[in-house]
UniProtKB/TrEMBL annotation:
Domain of life: Bacteria
Protein name: Mannosylglycerate hydrolase MGH1-like glycoside hydrolase domain-containing protein
Protein species of origin: Streptomyces coryli
GO molecular-function term, one example from the UniProt record: Glc3Man9GlcNAc2 oligosaccharide glucosidase activity
UniProt-listed GO biological process terms: oligosaccharide metabolic process; protein N-linked glycosylation
PANTHER family membership: MANNOSYL-OLIGOSACCHARIDE GLUCOSIDASE (PTHR10412)
Keyword annotations of the record: Glycosidase, Hydrolase
Family: Belongs to the glycosyl hydrolase 63 family.
Domain Mannosylglycerate hydrolase MGH1-like glycoside hydrolase: start-end pairs: 44-434
Taxonomic classification: Bacteria, Bacillati, Actinomycetota, Actinomycetes, Kitasatosporales
Keyword Hydrolase: yes
Length: 447
């Protein structure tokens, strides 16, 4: 088995790398709508928030202008309270192509008090804040072109308002960290981390919704009907409260969402300086968030960050890839970095023995190598961990992970996610962020 795994992660040959770049470019071209890139033409036919951030990071190697447009389209759907919705709906797509669709969220009416756009329909929840980091990387790809278009000057106030929302209305724990109020918000929809908090939620009746995802996805890969009923109930309750951030039945502080907020806050400081604003408030907020992240979510004995259930007040006793993603945070205490590196290579995730990183504890009671975020390896989390390893000086491990991402992404047909043991493609194929992030890592390898 070990020999097979390492053969699957062998570095691509120059010819394979060239084919990967061409195929990745074709995926992004095929999923482009003229204003943004859909994650998948079948399973996800609209614009998704953190997908677009990752997509822009890869698109900058093909077209800086298109990468800017990707982010600008998303920022154009921002709500008046600062939130960036997790879906921006394309009115040309039939309503029954995706659920929950516009007639469920009713953003322009139910979200009016929160400043939802009147002419653009969106969802009412959010996703992890990768956007300022993406905007800074897109700017760096061609600073002169970015300056000519005023890209950062236009993006900065919207990105600042987005971070203000996350650290203001969404500081539900009162300690400075942002909170998520729906399992879809941290981006790891059906992670076992949410099983406990979700158990308190009475699901919506099965006959009250139709799962369009099962038309295009294997039920063995997707969340269960019970979980989906609870997702629908939470979203409907939030909508019926006018998307006000009070009275939530589900509220968690997620380490990955907060780590991405910190990384993006550092990027926002760079953007502020380039746009002629004061970067100091962003440096200070990044420092405060880092201290709060370590104080509230770090489990020194387990060597991993945990999610905190804000309803019970307790840390959630599950190991998830979310708890490893704070590696992307600069300035973590050395003891924390050492603990994360040990956990990555230990029995629960086995990086080095396995080429990629499973989304959930390999020894966990709920591990499933096929079902969505309950075990499969994802390419966006691998991209983030590769970046974190490099940030903290673990260059050899970063190089090996980069080679594995490129090999498994190309050979899986740019799958949404893969079996962490075999590399078998799971979910949809020609998935946009897999193609985009493979392009980014291929470009870094060439450099």
């Amino acid at each position: 088995m070990t020999a097979l795994l390492h053969s699957l992660a062998l570095p691509l040959t120059p010819a394979e790398t060239d084919r990967l770049r061409r195929h990745a470019a074709a995926v992004l071209l095929g999923n482009w709508t003229g204003a943004a890139t859909v994650p998948s033409r079948t399973l996800y036919p609209h614009q998704w928030s953190w997908d677009s951030a990752f997509i822009a990071i890869g698109l900058r190697h093909l077209s800086v202008r298109r990468a800017q447009r990707e982010l600008e389209t998303l920022l154009g759907a921002q709500w008046g309270d600062g939130r960036l919705p997790h879906i921006v709906f394309n009115p040309a797509v039939p309503r029954d192509a995706y659920f929950p669709s516009t007639d469920f969220w009713r953003s322009s009416t139910a979200g009016a008090a929160a400043g939802a756009p009147a002419r653009t329909e969106t969802s009412g929840i959010v996703q992890p804040p990768v956007h300022a980091l993406a905007a800074w990387l897109v700017h760096q790809a061609d600073p002169a072109a970015s300056e000519r278009r005023g890209f950062l000057r236009r993006a900065y106030p919207r990105l600042a308002a987005w971070h203000d929302y996350l650290t203001g209305s969404r500081d539900l724990g009162g300690a400075g960290l942002t909170a998520n109020v729906h399992p879809w918000e941290p981006g790891m929809d059906n992670s076992p981390c949410w099983d406990g908090p979700l158990a308190r939620v009475e699901p919506a009746p099965p006959d009250s919704f139709r799962r369009a995802d099962l038309v295009h996805g294997d039920p063995a890969d997707r969340p269960t009907d019970l979980d989906y009923g609870r997702y629908v109930k939470l979203a409907a309750d939030y909508r019926d409260r006018g998307y006000a951030d009070t009275g939530h039945a589900f509220a968690v502080e997620d380490p990955a969402a907060n780590a991405l907020l910190i990384a993006s806050e550092y990027a926002l400081a760079e953007i502020a300086a380039a746009a002629g604003a004061d970067p100091a408030p962003h440096w200070h907020r990044a420092d405060r968030l880092t201290s709060a992240l370590v104080d509230r979510l770090w489990d020194a004995e387990g060597g991993i960050f945990r999610c905190r259930d804000l309803i019970s007040g307790e840390l959630i006793d599950e190991r998830s890839v979310s708890g490893l993603l704070p590696l992307i945070v600069p300035g973590l205490p050395g003891r924390v970095v050492e603990g994360l590196l040990a956990t990555l290579s230990g029995d629960h995730f086995r990086l080095g023995e396995l080429p990629l990183v499973a989304s959930y504890d390999l020894k966990g009671r709920s591990f499933d190598p096929a079902r969505y975020w309950r075990g499969p390896a994802w390419f966006n989390t691998a991209w983030l961990i590769e970046r974190g390893l490099r940030l903290h000086g673990a260059e050899d491990r970063a190089d090996a992970l980069r080679a594995a991402v490129l090999a498994w992404a190309g050979r899986s047909g740019f799958a949404e996610y893969v079996d962490p043991f075999t590399g078998k493609a799971r979910g949809t194929r020609d998935f946009s962020w897999t193609a985009a992030l493979a392009l980014d890592l291929a470009a870094e390898t060439s450099r």
